[in-house]
């Protein structure tokens, strides 16, 4: 990315584009300033006072995920692998989002915990809590760095600034509104950013399809380009997994991605769960991920298809796509991460270019702000307040939260340079998810449905599961296992899950469990059904507010999309 501005790949923005961007940034900072006026306690700063309606938290839930992974990462995957990338949405997201809303949110919201690690402390005790808190905080800084790197890349292409200058300026913008208004500022900006992203990417997709002669024209061009017809069918996805065997590829996608990575990310990742926790009622909390699932189904059409179009129309890819697919370095200096930017450069006129750039910046800011807002909550509540400074006045933790947000931003600046070394940012992020989310999901799911699981099993399963994922990744990078592509993260995640379960069961059988009375509200079989249900009267009344019915509609639509593509 460092060479892009010197390789004549600059975006040719005009005065109108810069005016649109300036207006957008003023709006973002204004929302942060207004949100600050509503912050009077640490609960307001970290969880929006648990006062937001479901439609706001639902859009924020999906917008928080529309960062580097969704926009640049999935468009890069679209350019590199094609339609198999839809598995990250229809297999690797929707089922887990529905499970979160129907099964897990009643435990999170009903227990009134302030974070996912706090739930771990109540279920397993302090050792598991501390391991989860530290690993989560580290993961958010690394992922925030990836979002920041891509945000800075746009500034680099737009203005030609050195990458390090772009990273610092981009970080300052996100920090300004996140530190001002806390979670409320992040959430309301995420709602705004959701609409900006859609307005930016839908025209780009339509114009791109017109250029290639519609869907059939795209099919013809992809068929005759490096990668061929494997990029036009979602199943079996051999090119995505790199397994070279269709049966193993399907198993890797369904188990590694669809179960372990997906459920690990969506059901235990506090970045997402925090949005639902900010809801005003149990019903709203349960509906939050389900509402987010509706737009999630259709995001592939505005991120993957532009990546596919870029791969067959952008001159740099037409020349060097085979080189990139073979793992080489393109003469032009481009990587698949640049797909969306280069398509914007080639297709969008001034005026529309400014909106598209604002959409990209919005996506990266939404992702980074989500990482920072969850990082400051976990660090302040689960690490500092629990283990370092207990029982201080609430104002102390509110002030600390703003300081921690600033410190997290500085750390993200350093991790942005780590992310800059990845040719496909999604590979990098999926590796991180296999390290941190896959073993956490194993611990959660076993602990929630097996009351015999003990506190010692909670922390030991997490530690050994994470170490096993890192080992698989290291052996793959050294060539010992022979895994390539995103199959590395699928296998690492599956290994972490299995190792965590085996260790947890073995340790549980050798150690003492908690008494049943201490597990009420934390274990499914010991929690009365009425406490898991939501109030369906008043503002929660109406068939269209029933979480089960909404989840059923989403599931039917998702199955239909899988059948069609």
TrEMBL record:
Pfam families: SSF (PF00474). The chain crosses the membrane at residues 15-35, 47-68, 88-109, 130-155, 161-180, 192-210, 247-268, 289-314, 352-379, 400-420, 432-450, 457-476, 488-510, 548-564. Its main location: membrane. It is a multi-pass membrane protein. InterPro entries: Na/Glc_symporter_sf, Na/solute_symporter, Na/solute_symporter_CS. The keyword Acetylation does not apply. Keywords: Membrane, Transmembrane, Transmembrane helix. The keyword Zinc does not apply. GO terms for molecular function: D-glucose:sodium symporter activity. One of its GO terms (cellular component) is plasma membrane. It is found in: Membrane. Belongs to the sodium:solute symporter (SSF) (TC 2.A.21) family. PANTHER family: SODIUM_GLUCOSE COTRANSPORTER 4, SOLUTE CARRIER FAMILY 5. This is Solute:Na+ symporter, SSS family protein. The lineage of its organism: Bacteria, Bacillati, Actinomycetota, Actinomycetes, Pseudonocardiales.
